[in-house]
Specification:
Layout lengths: L1 E5 L3 H9 L3 E5 L2 H5 L6 H11 L4 E4 L5 H12 L5 E6 L2 H12 L4 E6 L2 H10 L3 E4 L1 H6 L4 H14 L6 E4 L5 H10 L3 E4 L1 H7 L3 H26 L3
Parallel strand pairs: 1-2, 1-8, 2-3, 3-4, 4-5, 5-6, 6-7, 7-8
The structure holds erythose-4-phosphate (E4P).
The site of erythose-4-phosphate (E4P) has 11 residues, from helix 7.
Length: 226
């Protein structure tokens, strides 16, 4: 299971990149809109300089011609840029046309296994099932990952990777891996929470306190001439 960061915030990307865990980054128009004043091209180019792996840049056109035009432009920014298109019939056409030019695509906003299968058959590099948004409407996001994994498994020609998206909490990451996802794209806060455990904190505090007590005892012994 690989971890991508789901953000367009450069400070978050810089910090998580320092942890040595990132294999890629996903952005989307809503995440870009949160970064007031940041240019799209500059942001994507900067991210590509920080993280050595696929960087998703999402198209905003509603027809295949527009998606292809945007895709060709964004892919020229860096060899790691992959083009995010929505799971629509126009998106499928864009994936097929961009694929013929050697440009990789992430088909996003996947909410059923049919969308994932057709995206894979069109040549998607990754598909992004949105598990949190399904959970939000009382459907089972993890069941969708399991279904897609089983469908892909059944056809040895499918090389498309499953990228679990719309991750809400650390258990989603582990459950996605167990359900067959290859990648989870996570908000920064989910990664931070995933490394927290009260027993780690209390254990570390106890180790440090014991070490300090030992040092103090040795200093006293040295002062007493022992
Ligand atoms: C994936 O690539 C999307 O950017 C993202 O995971 C959307 O998640 P949300 O439901 O938190 O907006």
């Amino acid at each position: 299971m690989k971890i991508y960061l789901d953000t367009a915030n450069l400070a978050e990307i810089r910090e998580a990149a320092r942890w040595g865990i990132l294999s890629g980054v996903t952005t989307n128009p809503s995440l870009m809109a949160r970064e007031a004043g940041a240019g799209f091209e500059d942001t994507i180019r900067t991210i590509a300089g920080l993280v050595d792996g696929p960087i998703s840049a999402e198209t905003v056109s509603e027809d295949a011609d527009g998606m292809v035009r945007e895709g060709v432009e964004y892919a020229a920014w860096h060899s790691n840029v992959i083009i995010k298109v929505p799971a629509t019939t126009a998106g499928l056409e864009a994936v097929a046309r961009l694929g013929r030019r050697g440009i990789r695509c992430n088909v996003t906003l996947i909410f059923n296994a049919n969308q994932a299968l057709m995206a894979a058959l069109a040549g998607a590099f990754v598909v992004s099932p949105f598990i949190g948004r399904l959970d939000d409407i009382s459907q089972d996001g993890m069941e969708l990952i399991r279904e897609i994994a089983a469908v892909f498994e059944q056809d040895p020609d499918i090389r498309t990777q499953i990228l679990a998206a719309s991750i809400r909490h650390p258990r989603h990451v582990i459950e996605s891996a167990l359900a067959g996802a290859h990648i989870a794209t996570c908000p920064f806060g989910v990664l931070e929470k995933g490394m927290r455990h009260p027993l780690t904190d209390s254990g570390n505090a106890a180790f440090l306190a014991d070490w300090r007590a030992r040092e103090a005892a040795m200093a006293l012994a040295a002062a007493a001439g022992h």
